[in-house]
């Protein structure tokens, strides 16, 4: 009795195949009328069941498989003939031929090629001549089977042992196997047709059938590739392979529609799994992701597990999944996994955008609060003054301060990136700015007759207050510096300058582009002010960084954008004309 270890050894070696072939060879030498052929063929069939790649040898045989094996044994006992042997050898040739391309190692592929040669020689030169009673060919075949083919079997036995272990289920391509079976059956029946209709002997009929099949295969080879405007059979066959039970294009359209409609990755996964479960060859499936999992349909014994991009899918089918169907499954799961990962990235980007909006608004509000506290400090100093205009200044500035506090509270309730701002006349805003800083030693320069053009006052307050505050902080370490604020029109431009030391190059290169660390406070305040200005079509830039002349400029770009577009359009048209001339040349 074979132990499990012995069965595993035989199953993973070539000796089982060689023993099966030696038994078949002995049975064919005896002939179908010999009483010893039945036990030899039964033993050969038993070894085939251990070798075959359709079912595992250690697996329990089901009812359907047992019925199939019993019918094959009954046919061997009661219906044994040369036709039965020819049919068996044709099927065995197709099964062996389909496994040649599975192996990568040279000696394994050579062994299976020699097995195919042996089966083809036995079938065409011994079994079929006996089937058609071709006496001349039977004499040639008798010499072949008695002296030549045993040498071929010995050569197969002497081949080096292959280390490749591919004796498992799922390693047979049924399309190749069926194609080889049909080609060999067509060759045999074609030879019979030429013998019957043309009154030819067997060898002449076999050669004619071979030439005819070669011509047909050559014609298919020519039609396979695109030629003379014909798309080729390859495109049609590929389109057929992509059809997995439902039209692939419509299934893919529904999948992409689910990507666009579903709001998050979890809901998309439920929709994609529902679409996959609609395929007729699936009885159910289960999935597992980082966000959870679930199950749809019924569980069966035929399962396939596919993992891709953090997605694990287990698909259950009513029957065994062949390699072609597994190729389709991997393609579909890769599509679902790709879209699932894109939905996750989309959700992550949305979260980052929300956090960035909260961060930017919080940063601006921090500086707004700082500026308001500075204004409140100035108003407190004014209230303690004994000047007659102190009360009048308080009455002018307190309503403005109340408006800024109210606007700050609104921003706190709903953080968002601001693209619009409250509008205020330029002359009114300039007067308010000078009044807030009247007790600071700042030189103010303005043209005659400021216009009443409306400006985003909150953004102007944030930018200019930050620039003035940074200059005043620098004055604490450099007491003798001068600070000046100048406003110009056409285009609107406000410049804040001081006569202090230059900003280090390591800081100046990153200033207004990101957060920098410095002892003078340049950093996040100016960065947020610059971003806010860009959103409202203004530009904040460092226009001068020389010792004694440090200048920042807030420039209105809304009036210059059209001019820039005109210049860019002219440059594009000029480049097109130059390229056209070069091509003509």
How are the SSEs placed, and which strands pair?
Elements: H1 4-11, H2 15-30, H3 37-51, H4 63-78, H5 82-97, H6 106-132, H7 135-158, H8 174-198, H9 202-224, H10 233-241, H11 248-261, H12 265-277, E1 282-289, E2 292-297, E3 302-308, E4 311-317, H13 323-383, H14 390-413, E5 423-425, H15 426-436, E6 443-445, E7 454-456, H16 457-477, E8 483-488, E9 493-498, H17 505-508, H18 524-535, E10 538-546, E11 549-556, H19 561-584
Parallel strand pairs: 6-8
Antiparallel strand pairs: 1-2, 1-4, 3-4, 5-7, 8-9, 9-11, 10-11
Helix pairs in contact: 2-3, 2-7, 5-6, 5-8, 6-7, 8-9, 11-12, 12-13, 13-14, 13-16, 13-18, 16-18
Task: Provide a descriptive summary of the structure in words.
The chain has helices at residues 4-11, 15-30, 37-51, 63-78, 82-97, 106-132, 135-158, 174-198, 202-224, 233-241, 248-261, 265-277, 323-383, 390-413, 426-436, 457-477, 505-508, 524-535, 561-584; strands spanning 282-289, 292-297, 302-308, 311-317, 423-425, 443-445, 454-456, 483-488, 493-498, 538-546, 549-556. The chain is α+β, with helices and mostly antiparallel strands. A 5-stranded mixed beta sheet has the order 6-8-9-11-10, with helices on one face. A 4-stranded antiparallel beta sheet has the order 2-1-4-3, covered by helices on one side. Strand 3 and strand 4 (311-317) form a beta hairpin. Helix 13 packs across helix 18 (524-535). It is rod-shaped, with a radius of gyration of 44 Å.
């Amino acid at each position: 009795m074979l132990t499990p270890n012995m069965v595993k050894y035989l199953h993973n070696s070539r000796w089982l195949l060689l023993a099966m072939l030696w038994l078949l060879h002995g049975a064919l030498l005896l002939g179908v009328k010999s009483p010893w052929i039945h036990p030899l063929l039964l033993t050969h069939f038993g070894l085939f069941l251990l070798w075959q790649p359709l079912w595992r040898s250690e697996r329990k045989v089901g009812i359907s498989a047992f019925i199939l094996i019993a019918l094959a044994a009954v046919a061997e006992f009661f219906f044994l003939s040369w036709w039965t042997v020819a049919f068996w050898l044709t099927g065995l040739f197709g099964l062996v031929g389909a496994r040649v391309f599975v192996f990568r190692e040279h000696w394994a592929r050579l062994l299976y090629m020699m097995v195919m040669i042996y089966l083809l020689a036995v079938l065409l030169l011994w079994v079929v001549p006996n089937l058609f009673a071709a006496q001349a060919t039977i004499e040639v075949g008798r010499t072949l089977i008695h002296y030549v083919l045993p040498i071929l079997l010995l050569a197969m036995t002497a081949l080096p042992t292959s280390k490749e272990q591919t004796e498992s289920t799922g390693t047979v391509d049924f399309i190749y196997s069926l194609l080889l079976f049909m080609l060999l059956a067509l060759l045999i029946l074609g030879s019979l047709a030429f013998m019957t209709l043309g009154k030819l002997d067997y060898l002449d009929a076999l050669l004619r059938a071979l030439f005819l099949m070669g011509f047909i295969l050559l014609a298919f080879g020519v039609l396979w590739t695109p030629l003379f405007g014909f798309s080729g059979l390859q495109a049609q066959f590929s389109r057929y392979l992509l059809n997995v039970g439902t039209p692939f294009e419509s299934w893919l359209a529904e999948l992409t529609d689910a990507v666009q409609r579903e709001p998050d990755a979890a809901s998309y996964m439920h929709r994609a799994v529902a679409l996959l479960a609609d395929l007729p060859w699936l009885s159910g499936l289960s999935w597992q992701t980082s966000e959870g999992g679930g199950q749809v349909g019924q569980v069966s014994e035929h399962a396939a597990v596919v993992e891709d991009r953090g997605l694990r899918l287990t698909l259950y089918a009513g029957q065994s999944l062949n390699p072609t169907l597994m190729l389709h499954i991997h393609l579909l799961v890769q599509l679902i996994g790709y879209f699932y990962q894109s939905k996750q990235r989309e959700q992550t980007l949305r979260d980052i955008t929300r956090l960035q909006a909260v961060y930017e608004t919080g940063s601006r509000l921090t500086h707004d609060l700082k500026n308001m506290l500075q204004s409140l400090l100035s108003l407190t100093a004014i209230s303690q003054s004994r000047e007659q205009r102190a009360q009048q200044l308080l009455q002018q500035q307190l309503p403005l301060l109340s408006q800024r506090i109210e606007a700050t509270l609104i921003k706190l309730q709903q953080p968002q990136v601001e693209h619009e701002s409250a509008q205020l006349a330029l002359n009114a805003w300039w007067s308010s700015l000078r009044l807030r800083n009247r007790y600071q030693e700042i030189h103010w320069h303005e043209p005659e007759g400021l216009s009443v053009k409306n400006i985003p006052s909150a953004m102007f307050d944030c930018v200019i207050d930050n620039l003035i505050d940074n200059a005043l902080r620098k004055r604490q370490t450099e007491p003798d510096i001068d600070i000046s604020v100048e406003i110009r029109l056409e285009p609107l431009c406000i410049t804040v300058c001081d006569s202090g030391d230059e900003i280090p190059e390591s800081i100046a290169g990153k200033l207004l582009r990101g957060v920098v660390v410095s002892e003078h406070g340049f950093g996040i305040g100016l960065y947020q002010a610059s971003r806010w200005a860009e959103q409202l079509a203004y530009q904040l830039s460092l226009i001068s960084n020389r010792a004694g002349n440090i200048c920042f400029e807030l420039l209105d770009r809304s009036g210059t954008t059209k001019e820039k577009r005109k210049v860019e359009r002219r440059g594009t048209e000029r480049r097109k004309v130059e390229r056209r001339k070069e091509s003509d040349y």
